[in-house]
Amino acid sequence: MIIRTNTSGFEHPHPAEITPQGAYLQRREWLRTLAVGAVGAAAGSWASRQAFAQTSRPGVLTALAGTPSGVAGAMSMDKLTSYKDASSYNNFYEFGFDKSDPARLAHTLQTSPWTVEVEGLVKRPAKYTLEDLLKLSPMEERIYRLRCVEGWSMVIPWVGYSLAELIRKVEPTGNAKYLEFVTQTDAKTMPGLRSGSLDWPYVEGLRLDEAMHPLTLLSFGMYGEVLPKQNGAPVRLVVPWKYGFKSGKSLVKIRFVEKLPVTAWAKAAPQEYGFYSNVNPSVDHPRWSQATERRIGEEGGLLAKKRKTLMFNGYEAQVGQLYAGIDLKKFY
Ligand SMILES: Nc1nc2c(c(=O)[nH]1)N[C@H]1C(S)=C(S)[C@@H](COP(=O)(O)O)O[C@H]1N2
Ligand SMILES: [Mo]
C-alpha cells in the first residue's frame, strides 16, 4: 500500500525482510491434511485440532476451530503460508508502516470488551458483543489466497462464517445498496494514527451483493486459533477476490447506506485505489503492473520467481457474475 510521506505525493514503502519459513511446517502439513478431508469429518478434528494448536504454541492464543467449509471455492489447495510469515509480515497502518511493525506493536490493542455496531438502513440495528458474534453462526475454516495491491500474496486458513449470516439477521431495507465498514481507532494504543498517512478511521466498503456473497468472510481466527492482534483481532473481514486493503481489520461498525461509501484509501489517492479494487492482472496500478505476484515464504525470498496473478485472484468462477457487463477498467 502507498503511504503519504508528505502533502505532495505518495511513496511505496521499503520492502521489509521476509521471515524465513520452517518452524511451522508440521502444523501446515497437518492443517493441509485436514483441508483435503483425509483426517475425516469435523467432529473428530475438533479435539485434535485444539490439541495441536496448544502443543504447537502452548498457551499463546485461544484455540478456535472451524469445520472445513462447504462454500464453493472456499478451500484453496495452494500450499499454506507458514503461521510465522502470516503473523509477522502484515499491513496494519494503525500500528506503523513497516511490515514488521504490527507484530511488534499491536499487543497494545484492547480486544475485550469488544462490540460491533450495526446501523443504518436495516430493520434491526444492533450492538453485537464479540460473544454474540461468535455464537451467531457455526465456525468454518476457509483457506483463502489474499493478494495485496503491493504485489505479494499469502494463503491462510481463516476461521469464521459468511458475512451474509449477520446481514440476514439485521434485515437490510430496500434502499440499502452498500455496506461501510469502520475499524477501530484508538490514539492511545495505535501509534500509527499520529502519522496522518490516512484520514482515520480506516473505512472500507462493499456493494450489498458483494457483502452477501458466500465467500465474503467475517473472520475471528486463523490456523485454528483466534486472530493474532496484528491480523485484525478480534474480528475482521476477508474478501478474497479483492486486493487485501478491502479486508478491514478490527471492525467496530458496519453501516448500511444508499450511497457509495468514501473509503480511506479512495480519499487518500482516488486515482490509485478504486472502490471495487477487484484483483485484476490486466488493470495496472497507475505506477506498477498487477500482472504478477510474489507468494510470501516461497523459496528464494525477495528473488523468488513471480507467479501470474489470476483474474479475481482465482475466484472468477464464483464471483465473475457480480460484475457482468461492468467495465472493470473504469470501475477499478
Ligand atoms: N484497519 C486496517 N485494516 C487493514 C489494513 C490496515 O492498515 N488497517 N491493511 C489492509 C491491507 S493493505 C492488507 S494487504 C491486509 C493484510 O492482512 P494480513 O496482515 O492479515 O495479511 O489487511 C488490510 N486491512
Ligand atoms: Mo495490502
Your description of this structure?
The chain is 19% helix and 22% strand. It is globular. The strands form 3 sheets. Strands 3, 6, 7, 10, 11, 12, 14 and 15 form an 8-stranded mixed β-sheet that branches. Strands 5-4-13-8-9 form a 5-stranded mixed β-sheet. It contains 9 helices and 15 strands. The chain has 2 domains: 15-60; 65-323, Oxidoreductase, molybdopterin-binding domain (Sulfite Oxidase, Chain A, domain 2, Alpha-Beta Complex). The longest helix has 15 residues, at 42-56. With 332 residues, the protein is of the alpha+beta class. The protein has helices spanning 25-35, 42-56, 83-86, 101-105, 130-136, 163-170, 208-212, 264-268, 316-319; strands spanning 3-6, 9-11, 67-68, 115-120, 126-129, 140-147, 152-162, 178-183, 203-207, 217-222, 225-226, 236-238, 251-257, 292-295, 307-308. It binds the ligand Nc1nc2c(c(=O)[nH]1)N[C@H]1C(S)=C(S)[C@@H](COP(=O)(O)O)O[C@H]1N2 and molybdenum atom. The ligand Nc1nc2c(c(=O)[nH]1)N[C@H]1C(S)=C(S)[C@@H](COP(=O)(O)O)O[C@H]1N2 binds at residues 1, 90-94, 146, 148, 154, 183, 202, 231-232, 244-245, 247-250.
Give structural attributes.
332 residues, alpha+beta, Sulfite Oxidase, Chain A, domain 2, 8-stranded mixed β-sheet, 15 strands, 19% helix, binds the ligand Nc1nc2c(c(=O)[nH]1)N[C@H]1C(S)=C(S)[C@@H](COP(=O)(O)O)O[C@H]1N2, binds molybdenum atom
Summarize the helices and strands and which ones pair or pack.
Blueprint: E1 3-6, E2 9-11, H1 25-35, H2 42-56, E3 67-68, H3 83-86, H4 101-105, E4 115-120, E5 126-129, H5 130-136, E6 140-147, E7 152-162, H6 163-170, E8 178-183, E9 203-207, H7 208-212, E10 217-222, E11 225-226, E12 236-238, E13 251-257, H8 264-268, E14 292-295, E15 307-308, H9 316-319
Parallel strand pairs: 3-6, 4-13, 7-14
Antiparallel strand pairs: 1-2, 4-5, 6-7, 7-10, 8-9, 8-13, 10-11, 10-12, 14-15
The protein binds the ligand Nc1nc2c(c(=O)[nH]1)N[C@H]1C(S)=C(S)[C@@H](COP(=O)(O)O)O[C@H]1N2 and molybdenum atom (MO).
